[in-house]
Amino acid sequence: MENTLWNLNNIYESFDSEKFKNNIKTLKEKIKSLYVYISSADALSKSEVIKNYIKQTNDILEISSMLSEYALLRLSSNSYDNEAMKYYDIINNIISDMEKIKALFTSYIKNINNIEEIINSNKYIKEHEFFINEIKKKSLYTLTEQEEAVYSKMRSTGSVSWEKLWENITSSLKCKFIENGTEKSVPLSELRNMAYSDNSQTRKNAYFSEIESLSSIAPQAAFALNAIKGEVINMCKIRGYKSPLNMTLIDSRISEATFSAMISAIKNSLPYFRKYFKRKAEILGHKNSLPFYDLFAPIGENSVKFSYKEAQDFIIKNFSSFCPDMGEFAEKAFNSGWIDVYPRDGKTGGAFCSNIHSIGESRILINFTGSFNDVVTLAHELGHAYHGEQLNNETPINSDYPMPIAETASTFCECIIKNNAVSALNPNMALTLIENDISDNAQIIVDILSRFIFEDQLFKAREEGPLSADELCSIMEEAQEKTYGDVLSVKHKYMWVCKPHYYDAMFNYYNFPYAFGLLFAKGLYGLYKREGNVFVEKYKKLLSITGKANIENIALTAGIDITKPEFWKESINGIKTDIDKFISLTENLI
Prior knowledge:
The chain is mainly alpha-helical. It has 25 helices and 7 strands. 46% of the residues are buried.
C-alpha cells in the first residue's frame, strides 16, 4: 500500500498532546526569560550577554519552529482545519514577542565598538560570527524595542491575516470545468495541472475556466494584496530602506552587483526564448505567437506516465548516480511518511518543502498527477529536504539561509533528474524531455522576470494608493508583454491572484530567487560534469555553510565569482544550446 499522506506524529501527535501543550508553555517561559535577561544586559559582561543570547535564541528557535510548522502543515493539507488556523494565530502571537527582544539586542550590538574583539574571544560566539555581524549591519534599519513589538503584534492582524484570507479563498475555490460535455467542480490546483495535458481542448478549457474562477475572487485578492504591499512600503520607509527591493537584497545577503549582473544576463537572453516560443507556436498550429494556454503543451511523445512508486524508483536511482547518500536520503523520505502526495479538496495547490531542523526531518507537499513534470517537482522538493539534511549539524541560527540560495539545492536535483533522463529515453521522448526542460527554464527566466517586473511596478504604483483588480491585471499584462514580447498572443492577467509569493509580507520579490537558483544550480552542475566525484563533497560543504555566509562567499567555496556577468552568461548558454537543438530536432514537425 502506497504511503501517500504525511505523518506529523514525530512533530506532535495532536494539538491536545502533552508535548504540544508543554512546548507552548516552555516557549512562553523562554521568551519571557530572555527578555528579562537582555533588559539587564548593560550590567553584564558583553561576551557573556552575546553568548547567552545566541544559546537561548537557538533553544527558542528549536521549539518555535516545531510549533509553527506543525500548525502550518496541518493547515496546508486541510484549509478547513479550524483548530490549526486557531493555533497558527496563537503561536505566531507568542513568537512575535521575540521582535522586541531582537530590537533590544540589536540596539545593544549597535553600540559595541569592539565587536570583532568580542567575537574572537569566545569559540561559541565565533561559530556565530556571521549572525552577529549581520545584526550589526542591519542595526541601521531596526526600530526601538517598543516599535518592533507593536509592529509584530499588528502584523499578526494585518499582513498575516490578509495572507491567510488569500490562502483560504484560493485553496477552497471550486472551479467549473466541462469534460466530455459534463460539468464538474475541481480544485484550482487540479485545474492548473491541466495546462500540461496532451489534449489541446482540455488545456484551452482549463485556462478559460481558471481565468473565470480567478476573476470571481480577484476583488478579494486585490484587497489582500494592497493591504500587504501597503504594509511593506510603510515599514520600509519607517526603517530607512531605500525601497522594498533594497530591503530584499539586504535580507537576501546578495549584492547589487550580483543582482544586476544576473538580471542583465536574463534580459539579454530573451530573444533566444522568443525563438523557442515561436517554434512551439508553429508546431502547435499557431501563427508566430503562442496563447498562454499552450505554453506548457507537450511536444513529441508524451505517453509516459509515472505511478507514484515509479516516480520514487526513478528519483532514487538518479539521485544515487550523483552520490549514494542522496539516493538513500530520498528513500528515507519516501518510507518515513514525509510526503503528502495527491491533490484533494482543501489542500494547498503547488508544492513546498518544510525543513524541521529540531527533529532533523522535512515534510513535503506536492499535487502528484503522474506527469514527468510532477516527478521533477518531487525531485525539486526533495532537493530542499536534502539541503536541510546538510544543515542538521548546524545550530538553528546557522541554518537560516536567504531566499536566493534556497532554490539552489532543489534546482540542482532537477538538473540531475533531467540530464540523466535524456540518455535513458528513446529519441522522441528525449525530444519531449528537452522541450519540457526549456519550457521550465522559460518559466523561471522569462515568466519569473515578468513577475518581478509586475511586483516592482506594483510597489511603485501602490505608493500612490490602492489598486483595483483591473489595474493589477493591466500591470501584469504589461509585464508579460515586456518579457514575452509579441510571441504571447493570449496572456494570463490573473497571475497575481494565484501566485502565493506576492502575499507574504516577509518575503517580497520572491521571484528572482528562482532565476538565481536555476542559473546558479546550472553553473554548479556544469562544474560537477567537469570535476566528477571531486565536486560532491564541495557541493555538500557549500550547502552546509548557506546559513552563515553571504551569497558571494558561498559561491566562492566552489570557485565561482557571481558578481561577474560571465558566470550568468555561461549558465544561460547551456539553455541556448538546448533551444538550438530543439529547433533543429523539430524542423520536420512544421
